[in-house]
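Researcher: Following up on the earlier apo prediction. This time include the ligand. It's zinc ion, with the SMILES given after the sequence.
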Amino acid sequence: MRKCRFCERPAIVRLRYANLPLCDEHFKKYYMGRIKKILDKHRIRGEILVAVSGGKDSMALLHALNEISKVEDSIGITAFHINLGIYDYSQKSEDVVKKFAKEIGVVLITYYLKKEIGHTIPEIARTSRRPPCAVCGIIKRWVFNKVAYENGFDYVATGHNIDDVSTILLKALLTQDIYTIIRAQSEFSPPKIDMKLVGRIRPQFYLSEMENRLYVELNNIPVIEEACPLSIGATTHKYRSIWDSILRMNPASQINLVRSILKLRSQMIVDEPQLVQCKKCGYPTESKAGICAFCRLMERVHRTGE
Ligand SMILES: [Zn+2]
Ligand SMILES: [Zn+2]
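Model: Understood. Below is the ligand-bound prediction.
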């Protein structure tokens, strides 16, 4: 067994993209350092609403941000969970988040989709005849921003990892989905409070699913292991497996693809979409018709009936 780069103990992992063998303690330190670097780079201060689904990425994020907030007086965190109404899966997710938030002493806000907007994700997907993952994405984005804005938070933190981000961008390239490339988001989107838009941070943007999983295991963080039953068969899952062979050849390929696209995007001359307030809900949208994606989706649901 190799030795840890920073001490005499055996390495439990070698991060291939950095050629870095690490013991358990130094891996935890390294992981926290990566998260902290993103916060420092964008001078994140204030109250952060941490979106937690119960999966390994967001549970690792909640744990890491809580550790940071203990030593950084300028950062406060609150956990936020949406019960999406996806059968047993949502109940199990809510239970695991509740238990863990209590265990680490973090305040948790739970939002029940059925109670707040009258419909669950399966109901909305069925009546709108749109893919459940697309529906869920639109709804979560709107709810995160609304709840954070109404409760005076400065930022919403979400648990995207490099495997997710690179797969979305790879799929966009392979399908000529230029819209997704142009709109590619980095690890940080600044707040625009006059537009009722709260800032977004994605502190695990360049961390892999494997690193999040290892962090969860080393810290004994409970997580929901099963995948969302509605996501089975989603095309993103199929594209994801392409990475296995590319990563064997070049361990930094996911990070490099994302960095390349963000660099290209910053050089592109594109009309910055004008943000306007949605005529229905008052939250920001880039839509020329002035109705946000969430309100358009809900209109569609109400038109088609239950
Ligand atoms: Zn070590
Ligand atoms: Zn709206």
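Model: Residues 278, 280-281, 283, 292, 294-295 surround zinc ion (ligand 2) (CB under 6 Å).
Researcher: Noted. I'll compare it with the apo version next.
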